[in-house]
## 1
Amino acid sequence: MKACLLAAFVLLSAPAFSQPSVPDLPFESVPDFLKLPPGMNFGEVSGVAVNSKGHVFVFTRSNSALGPAYAPSAAQLLEFGPKGEFIREIGKGLYGLAFAHTVRVDRDDNIWAVDKGSDMVIKFNQAGRVVMVFGRRQESADQETKPWEDVNPPRPAVDGRSRTRALAASAPT
């Protein structure tokens, strides 16, 4: 009987000893906020970033129709205005945009695209021009070109090549 009373006391007093509740984060949901041009669709969105002017950058694996994900291209970097209006595609047809991983915007509003398919990190200025490139894409014609596989232990370093997952973790914010 004493054990039942002790258990009931513990269960009823547990909320008094628990951590304080998490505060609500106010937000406003706006359905279909981003307006794509007719005939364009999002695929897998792997990264979203916002610059100081409220422009939204979406890095998506979709819609390029130029080839398979690990050969020519399957990534698009899209910019939208603060009200969700489509502004432009950045880096259209760029050799380094093969399979989107993530996107970041630094304090100077430069756009950093990390691409898993090309193993490259590309820095664009505000005008959308490439200003810096890290890594090197495998050549599409190479027979061994395919997605990197996770191996344990990790592969040794190769000059001129990078692993985008490690770079994504250290990309500027």
## 2
Amino acid sequence: MPIKIPATLPAHDVLRREGVMVMSEETALRQDIRPLQIGLLNLMPKKVQTETQFARLIGATPLQIELTLIRMSEHEPKNTSAAHLETFYQPFREARERHFDGLIVTGAPIEHLDFEAVGYWSELREVFDWTQTHVHSTMGVCWGGMAMLHHFHGIPKHMLPAKAFGCFRHQRIAPSSNLLQGFSDSFVVPVSRWTEVRDEDLQLHPELRVLIHSEEVGPCLIEDAGHRAFYMFNHLEYDSTTLKEEYDRDVASGSPVDTPVDYFPDDDPAQPPENRWRSHGALLYGNWINGIYQTTPFELERLGG
């Protein structure tokens, strides 16, 4: 089944060209099923790119998905046009009246700031608390996952001496998890962050379960069953060229940056990178959507209860 998104959203044509099924409002109304309501709280500056990446993954499942794009109410993004935001996004103050089967909270390029120093931190804490009464399952990604972990458990993020940047080998350490069905024992995951969550902090919280881990860059995916949430610190949603775009941007600005680890063939930035994580990205988000479908109540007003 396809994903339902507006025909004028930039992701619509991109996904159709890639073979992802997308659905019009008219077609959706003819189908006698309730589509899953999935929200994307998009905190990234390149909103169109992020919309497309996540719509691609959740639109590849055999279920009808209705995607709602959400933004912080008062924060004004600098890299996305006001017209795009007005056309396609709901501010949280409006979306909070609804219930969602699933919510994705993206990362944000503000890792150097303490959580409490982020301008929209107060409203974001409202979002996290709201998920406990209005969302069936939440996926926090990169900074978004670290922020949720800090809010619910007080676990800090730690600055790294150098940016964790590239493709790193990870291990599936919870093979019984439904979220990891079909995963290889080890696999490559793109990483791009200046901060980390440490094993020793997590060990103080037995209510949390580490599902994916890397010897080089630490915890990757954590299950928080008590809050019906998962925290994914790395980027299986990335396009093939996302790390290259970040690298080229830093080089062009004169910022000190190392070549992404194990990303370019022969570590040569002149060669096009090869995507070695696409299948696991599809598995992760497909399993998440499948788990939501099997456990979410049919009546929307019971979501999050």
## 3
Amino acid sequence: MRAYQLPQATGIDALVEVAPPMPKPGPRQVLVKVAACSLNYRDLAIALGTYRMPTKPDLIPLSDGAGEVVEVGAGVTRVKTGDKVAGCFFQRWPGGEPSQTVQASALGGSIDGMLAEYAVLEEDGVVKIPAHLSLEEGATLPCAAVTAWHAMMVHAKLIAGQTVLLQGTGGVSVFGLQLAHAMGMQSVITSSSDAKLTKAKALGANHTINYKTTPDWEKSAMEFTRGRGVDHVVEVGGQGTLARSFGALRVGAKISMIGNLSGAATELNPGLIMGRRANIQGISVGSTQMFEALNRVIAANAIKPVIDKVFGFDDVKAAYQHMASGAHFGKIVIRVG
């Protein structure tokens, strides 16, 4: 079969096409014919050697992929041949609190990922995708959409009428915007691009802020909430953004720490936490049960993931370069089959 491998994390050009043998599912595993994959910022960081976690040697990259089950191992009952499924970011986190070994089952990092024509996945590490989605759309969900769900619905426990602040227009923030709109929440979203903010408005954003022209964006968010502050911030920046996130919060609100796209938040002052009585939690994607709960909402509201661009399997490096450019709005997809 065809696949891509990252022999060493030295840059996008290190990606090479390889021809590994066809995998075979073991007990409680399934073989998926992969139709499409999608990129996350993590995948770029792994290729560049800047990811915070160790990765396996000669890695087949990408956590996100979807396809059709073509073979099942002994004892499999959750899915059957012919089902259209997406792989779960963590192959061994069915639900509940994550165990110490969950990280060791991270696709495209600790173990081989989805950038191949076929992939063997755990029975508890796949979910059926909503019927109204294509496999390309289903491939966008495993990391960014589940992360947004975990942050907003599991950590923050947002309800209709509350307000969430989303930073930027990457995958997590755009999915968060779509969830907020579908579930009756108010959304504030930031970007350095007015064109991207216009697209966010079209997806239902209630208040948009260009952080280049309005560097004190926390004040704009506070004004939007008439001085009360937002109920939740999905914090994807880190350095230069976290302190401002506190400035946008209401007393007793929550911040979900997703990543450090702008670097480590070394300016964190514990007094900010006390001053806002804030709750901060690190979020690392989510469990299979979270993915299934997310899919029920996606299906009930006919949510369609925003795909920026689709690349062919021969153009994988171009897909990575598009991610690195930061020009995208929504998800970057690679068509495999």
